Amino acid sequence: MAATAHGSVRVRNNPFARESASPSPAPSRPRPQSGSIASPQGTFSSSNHVQNSAFSPLGGVSSSSTNATRRRAGSGSHSQSTSTFAPTFIRSEQLERAGEALRAIEGENDFSGKRYVWLGDPNVAFIKGWVIEELGDDRLLVQCDDGSQREVDSESVDKVNPAKFDRADDMAELTHLNEASVVHNLHTRYQSDLIYTYSGLFLVTINPYCPLSIYTKDVMNMYRGRSREDTKPHIYSMADGAFRNLVDEGENQSILVT
User: Fold this and answer.
1) 11-14 long-range CB contacts below 8 Å, 24 or more apart?
2) Residue scoring higher pLDDT (75 or 237)
């Protein structure tokens, strides 16, 4: 650490001095006169601003690699590299158990440990239930939501999506994409007056058979210039996307309605 002797007091160099002159223009207003800053090889001296050599950790930043090693010694000695964002105090055994629990409930819609499935039903098309017991010959004993217990073939049931996928805007995002899950998602959205649902690039529409206030000018403005990801499924979103592609690409666009 470079310093100059001033009587019996050691005065440090300015830690903020640049190696070369700054390219920016000099300030129009003079700096306060509490101290004087000399050239980059000079010293920072003032009778009222004398500092000892151990005051600032910035001293000697560019002098040698020894000081940089000393500054990092306290913070890096206890750090450990991990492959997760979990804090280091969480033991690896706990992380492994959590991962196993998540894998065990795949295909279920809650964390109760029950295995939920869809069953075909002649009256309501599909009915949900949970597996009570796995019988022999690939047979399952299922407790249905209507209170009945049914013994069915394991190949005739479909997995139920987790509850977070209820009323999903895009059915392509469902974990388990099967006929029962599609019908269930459309049914729950229809009950909430959500008649539009995406299925990948397609827009599925169910006739509400009643007037809905979703075609007003205010609703139209909500979709103008907005991307599909920022809005809910609607025919206005499809129309706005086609118009923007027409302007940007300069090619004809089409919307297929079936």
Assistant:
1) 11/43, 11/44, 11/45, 11/50, 11/51, 12/43, 12/44, 12/51, 12/53, 12/55, 12/56, 12/59, 13/42, 13/43, 13/44, 14/38, 14/42, 14/43, 14/44
2) 237
